[in-house]
Amino acid sequence: MLMMRLNKYIASCGFCSRREADQLIEGGRVCVNGQTAISGMQVSDADLVEVDKKFVKPMSEKVVLAYNKPVGVTCTEKDKHAEKTIVEAVNYPVRLTYAGRLDKESEGLMIMTNDGELIQRMMKGANRHEKEYVVKVDREITH
Asked: Taking Cα atoms as reference points, which of 11, 121, 111 lies closest to residue 57?
């Protein structure tokens, strides 16, 4: 039986991010096997996890999308000041997160997935993934 931290378990259910899960746990909104959860506790698939009195289970199907982000879309999940977020633009029926980010005024490939482990492997600096950018400027570059 594989054990994992509760915040990671909740994130794997597609409910929210790990940080948001920590806030839910600290706020007393998470129960494990009918008991109020505590931060840092370990759970397995055999445990019954509830968030706001609704049971959550990890997603069994992994989704990976390649999205060509256009200019004007903001790389964030939530921002009341953004005209359009990447999550709104993609409008996928399950919660997805993305690897890296591009400025609002940039366009390019974004990988979006519900697989948190994939995101970690892609983004961890120690894995030394090469990134390539094409930059266009509107004037001569000087020293």
From this structure: 11
Q: Which of 45, 79, 103, 138 is catalytic?
A: 103
103 is catalytic: yes
Per-residue pLDDT of the chain (143 residues; tens, 9 = 90+): 789 999 989 988 878 888 999 999 999 999 999 999 999 999 998 999 999 999 998 877 889 999 999 999 999 888 888 889 999 999 998 888 888 888 899 999 999 998 878 888 888 777 777 777 788 889 999 99
Is 0.70 topped by the overall pTM?
A: no
